[in-house]
Write a structure and sequence with these properties.
Blueprint lengths: L1 E2 L1 H4 L14 E2 L1 E2 L10 E3 L13 H5 L4 E5 L2 H13 L4 E5 L2 H19 L4 E6 L4 H15 L4 E3 L9 H6 L8 E5 L7 H9 L3 E4 L7 H4 L2 H8 L1 H10 L4 E5 L14 E5 L6 E6 L2 E6 L2 E6 L6 H17 L4 H10 L8 E5 L2 E6 L5 H17 L7 E6 L8 H15 L4 E4 L3 H7 L4 E3 L2 H15 L2 E5 L14
Parallel strand pairs: 3-4, 4-5, 5-6, 7-9, 7-10, 8-9, 10-11, 11-12, 12-13, 17-21, 18-19, 18-21, 19-20
Antiparallel strand pairs: 1-2, 13-14, 14-15, 16-17
Length: 466
Amino acid sequence: MIKLKHLAQCNTVITALLDLEGALPFCSDSRKYAHPSAFVAIPGAKVNPLDIIDPLLKLRCPYVIYQKDKINDEKVIKLNEQYPHTRFIAVEDSVTFLQELTREHIKEWKELSSKNTVFAISGSNGKTTHKEMLSFILNTILPGKVVATEKNNNNHLGVPLTLLNVNERTEMVVLELGSNHPGEIKVLCDIALPNAGLTTNIGATHLEFFGNEEKVFQEEGYLYYAIKNNTSGKGFYLINKDDSFLKSLPDTTGSISFGENTEATAQISYLDNGAAIDYKGSELAVSNSYITGKHNKLNLITCAFIAHHFYPESKSEIIRAAGEFKPTKNRSEWIDFQGRSVFLDAYNANPSSMKAALVAFRDSIIEQGKVVNESCVVLGDMNELGENAPRYHEELGAFVRELGFPHVYFVGRYADSYLKGCPSGNKRSSSRDFKSEYRDECIKNFSIHFIKGSRSLQLESLFDIT
């Protein structure tokens, strides 16, 4: 429930709102409107929401916040005549208003209890996996008290919409912060006011807009400074000592360093089916049969450690929940297709995540008692790598060759670059063109498969998965 007085505190509000009392849920999707809620009309690229809100106005929607301009003002005059029970509130910019409203809401929520925490996650790889793992574990020990980013709604609009779900019962927010342009993490931190968090790692992501990894570090690492400033250095923040960029972040009162690096305060070690972390002589170990690879074991133990930091009395529940977690659809998941084992990650791809997943796949082949010759590897484009994209694809092709995979298919516009690094590979133009061949030949000839590429390739369509 959002207190209506917060509307008057937003700089973009044009209409006087000081007389408003009470609290209401807020909604920005007319298809999901539930009465009574206040509706924020956010202009779309093709649709003006004021043209499609008659159904919710007929439900006697009490407030509609809209973006003021000549066309909208004229629409509102007509709507107000037809629906006099609805109050129309003009703002300069609907998105900025939503962000300001969210900030006021979160400020007040954090003041309700010292336990109330916005745990934010930034980084090049693994943000969504961390968010899914951590929220799964926390929901086990705090049912009904956790709000988390849905899907990957991690941008300037998704973050406020997530945070507007926070209410008096909420105790933990698990918030994913996404960025592909400089300055976006700061915008999100200014909205969310995180008081705890983690930057997963720094890699060659969105280089089309950042240029180099140092600038990626400056962007993703801003979360550290936001938490430090919001909490006078007392906020819980995990510093990844195994990352060549993040390890340079200075310790704060509330920070804990972790990793295999001997300089880390919390030491990570790996088990056959999981991982352990030793912190000040106390060990936490978790195992999970649904995940593959060292990187995912690290993700899991990190999330378990975070949950244990906040709720040490729930250690047994945390360990149990960590073991029950299953990867989300199309994201580092094992599926069975026509009797074949397929590792599918058709959601995102960049050089570091590709390498980690390929090593994990090779290790899994060995664990299953199979040989590399039985495998088929399908790699799609890695997008948003800028002018050096061909070089990154060539380097990854060479990496695949070094791992010893003999049956490799490169799909997409960078297939030729892949082939420079791995000349024995096969080139295919698109998932659609490759689909029949893959099903008729690859599935029949190879017992274990690896499929990974950027979202635009839609590699899941090879299996008719949507």
